[in-house]
Write a structure and sequence with these properties.
This protein is of the alpha/beta class and 437 residues long. The chain is elongated. The longest helix is centred in the C-terminal third of the chain and has 19 residues. The chain is built from 14 helices and 21 strands. It has two domains: 181 residues, Rossmann fold (3-Layer(aba) Sandwich); 199 residues, CoaB-like (Rossmann fold). Strand 16, helix 13 and strand 17 form a beta-alpha-beta unit. It binds cytidine-5'-monophosphate. Cytidine-5'-monophosphate binds next to helix 12 and strand 16.
Length: 437
C-alpha cells in the first residue's frame, strides 16, 4: 500500500463518527460517480447518508455533471477532492492542482463499491460500451468493486429499447440497479425516471456491500403471524407474511451476525446462514424467545403476535353436527403475554446493553400510536408502518415505515423494498449499539 493510501485510510478512520470505546468496524470505501442529470442535486444528501452510516466516500463527476452539483459541496462533505477530470485540473484555468492528482486506477482499486448516481441514459450507454474517456467511465472500467447504478432520465429515454438493452447487458455483467422511481419528472413528463431517494440508494449500497458491521453479534429475530388454536384444525391468525422479519434475518446474516429466527406462520424459505425455530402460537413464541434471549445481543421483533387467544382450545375438531341446528360458537378470548415488553423488562433488569427493536402495524394515527407504544414497551426503536396502504405492510414486498425513538423523534423512510428497509434498520441498530457500549 502506498503512503498516500495509508494516510487516506487512517484519515477515514479518524473521520468515522462514534462515541463508544467499542472497536469499530473499518469504514467501507465508496466512490460516488455523478453523471450529468438534474437529479445530481440529490447527491450531497446521498453522500451525507453514506457518511452518516460510517462509510468513507469519494466523489468523481463527469465534466457536465459539474453544471448540476458543485464539486466544492461534495469536497466539503467528503473532505476529499471531487474531480471531474482525468488529466490536469478540474476547473479549466484554475491554479488549484489538487484535482489533477486524482489517479483513476488508485481510486478504482480503493473502492469497495462504486455508486453511479444519477446514472443518465448516456452514461449507461457509455458504461455498456466500455468507454473510458473521462474520469467516471475510467474508474468504472478499471474497478473490480461491485457497481450500483441509480438511473435518472426522461421516461421515454428510460423506455427506449437502447436503454433497456444497455441495462440488460449491465445487469448480466453484475451491475446492480436501484430505481428509478415513478412520478413527476424534471422534464415535465410523468412516469418512471426519477432517481431513487438518497436513503433508498444508501440502503441498496448496504446490501451491495454486504458489510460485516454485525460480526460478533447474536441477533434474535421474530417473524410472521402467530396461530392461536381454536381446536385441533382451526386457528386464529393474521395476514403477516413474515417477509419483513425474514429480510432482517437475511441482512443480519449478510452483515456477519449469528442469527436465530423465531418464525410463526409463513411459507418463506430460511435465509442462508440463519438458524430457524418454528413456532405456532404466541405462547410457543414466548417460550422460544425466552430460551434464545440470554445469548442475544440484538433483538428485532417483527412478528405479528396475536394479542388474544381462545381461552379453551379443544384438542379435537369441533364438529358442526355437535352444535344446535343453525347455531354458532362463542369464542372466549384471553390476552396473550406481551413478549416484546417482557424482553425489554428482562433486559433492563439484567442491566444488559442488548438493543431491542419493536414493530408496530397501525391502520390509523400511526405516529402517535407508535410514540405511545414505544413508551409502553420500553424498546430502543419502534418501526411503525401504516398497514392501511396497499403498497406497504402486510403481504407485499414494499414497506413505508417510520423509525420512532424513545424520545418521540421520528424518521420517515420513503417506500422501500423490505430488503432495503432491513438494511436501513440494521444501520440504525448498529448506531444505537455503538451509543450504548
Ligand atoms: O402492541 P402491538 O402488537 O402493536 O406491538 C407490536 C410489537 O410488539 C411487535 O414488535 C410485536 O412483535 C410485539 N408483540 C409481542 N407480543 C405481543 C404483542 C406484540 O412481542 N403479545
Amino acid at each position: 500500500m502506498t503512503q498516500d493510501r495509508q494516510d487516506r485510510q487512517s484519515q477515514d478512520q479518524r473521520q468515522s463518527p462514534g462515541r463508544s470505546s467499542r472497536k469499530r468496524a473499518e469504514p467501507r470505501r465508496i466512490v460516488v460517480a455523478v453523471s450529468a442529470g438534474i437529479a445530481a442535486y440529490k447527491v450531497p444528501e446521498l453522500v451525507r447518508e453514506l457518511t452518516r452510516a460510517g462509510h468513507a466516500v469519494r466523489c468523481v463527476l463527469t465534466p457536465r455533471a459539474t453544471h448540476f452539483v458543485s464539486p466544492l459541496v461534495l469536497e466539503t462533505l467528503t473532505g476529499h477532492p471531487a474531480s471531474s477530470s482525468l488529466f490536469g485540473t478540474a476547473t479549466p484555468g484554475s491554479s488549484d492542482t489538487t484535482a489533477a492528482e486524482i489517479d483513476h486506477i488508485a481510486l478504482a482499486d480503493w473502492a469497495e463499491l462504486v455508486i453511479v448516481a444519477p446514472a443518465t441514459a448516456d452514461l449507461l450507454a457509455r458504461m455498456t460500451a466500455g468507454m473510458a474517456d473521462d474520469l467516471v467511465t475510467a474508474v468504472l472500467l478499471a474497478t473490480r468493486a461491485p457497481v450500483l447504478v441509480a438511473p435518472a432520465m426522461n421516461v421515454n429515454m428510460w423506455e427506449h429499447p437502447a436503454t433497456r438493452a444497455n441495462l440488460e447487458t449491465l445487469r448480466a455483467r453484475g451491475v446492480r440497479t436501484v430505481g428509478p422511481d415513478a412520478g413527476e419528472l424534471a422534464c415535465g413528463w410523468e412516469g418512471q425516471g426519477r432517481m431513487s431517494e438518497p436513503v433508498a440508494i444508501a440502503a441498496a449500497a448496504s446490501l451491495a456491500l454486504g458489510s460485516d458491521s454485525l460480526s460478533g453479534e447474536v441477533v434474535l429475530v421474530t417473524a410472521g403471524g402467530t396461530r392461536e388454536p381454536i381446536d385441533a384444525v382451526r386457528s386464529l391468525t393474521n395476514r403477516s407474511s413474515g417477509r419483513m422479519g425474514f429480510a432482517v434475518a437475511a441482512e443480519a446474516a449478510r452483515r456477519g451476525a449469528t442469527v436465530v429466527l423465531v418464525a410463526g406462520a409463513t411459507a418463506l424459505p430460511t435465509p442462508p446462514g440463519v438458524r430457524r425455530v418454528d413456532v405456532g402460537s404466541a405462547l410457543e413464541m414466548r417460550d422460544a424467545v425466552l430460551a434464545e434471549l440470554p445469548d442475544a445481543t440484538l433483538v428485532v421483533k417483527a412478528a405479528a403476535v396475536a394479542d388474544f387467544r381462545p381461552a379453551n382450545p379443544q384438542d379435537r375438531k369441533i364438529k358442526k353436527e355437535s352444535l344446535a341446528e343453525g347455531g354458532g360458537i362463542q369464542l372466549e378470548l384471553v390476552p396473550n403475554p406481551d413478549i416484546l415488553a417482557e424482553v425489554c423488562r428482562l433486559t433492563k433488569e439484567q442491566g444488559s446493553h442488548r438493543v431491542i427493536v419493536g414493530f408496530a402495524a397501525e391502520s390509523h394515527d400511526v405516529i402517535e400510536s407508535a410514540r405511545r407504544k414505544i413508551a409502553r414497551k420500553g424498546c430502543h426503536l419502534l418501526v411503525a408502518n401504516d398497514v392501511s396502504r396497499s403498497d406497504a405492510g402486510f403481504d407485499v414486498d414494499t414497506n413505508a415505515v417510520h423509525f420512532v425513538s424513545p424520545d418521540g423523534e421520528v424518521e420517515d423512510l420513503p417506500l422501500l423494498s423490505k430488503d432495503e428497509v432491513a438494511a436501513h434498520l440494521l444501520d440504525r441498530v448498529a448506531k444505537i449499539r455503538d451509543g450504548l457500549r
